[in-house]
Request: fold
Amino acid sequence: DAGVTQSPTHLIKTRGQHVTLRCSPISGHKSVSWYQQVLGQGPQFIFQYYEKEERGRGNFPDRFSARQFPNYSSELNVNALLLGDSALYLCASSLARGVGNSPLHFGNGTRLTVT
Amino acid sequence: GQQVMQIPQYQHVQEGEDFTTYCNSSTTLSNIQWYKQRPGGHPVFLIQLVKSGEVKKQKRLTFQFGEAKKNSSLHITATQTTDVGTYFCAGATGGGNKLTFGTGTQLKVEL
Reply:
């Protein structure tokens, strides 16, 4: 079975632009969560979706938004990019409704650089 | 908000030495998970602990959940170069509806 797939793998944007990151979960996983990881730090929770409904939102500005589609894939959108948005964006899928109740399976991430 | 801290931040060991990382939460946890992230890679799930005082072993790795469910530790016996990476704990709260990653411990193993 395929693991979690994310696209694109790398992205370079300029300040003020917007970006869309995509994630396909492991087959059978209905939960998708998004994390931002700055170099040298732990992953910071952005959003979790389960069965297309937002289940949780981290401490990120409204410039960050996400959605989950009927096939359980997900998109993360970031508007009005800032230099500080440069990071590795990780998507994780899992089985359980609660994000902390079952193992997270991470994709390889999207490396976003904002110049 | 909830904080999950890990110590040490970095650890360099000689191959064959033991290694321990400690994880401390500011709030009581529903469960705790441990992940390993190799350089340039993504976090990979290692284990989940649920019960107070629980101890689990995976070959050379021993995981422990504190009695108060606010701290945890990972101990590696006789480290190998394949153990290199950053180890993160992740604490679940709110009945598992929230998961907060720790600050991580970066392990380097020298021959």
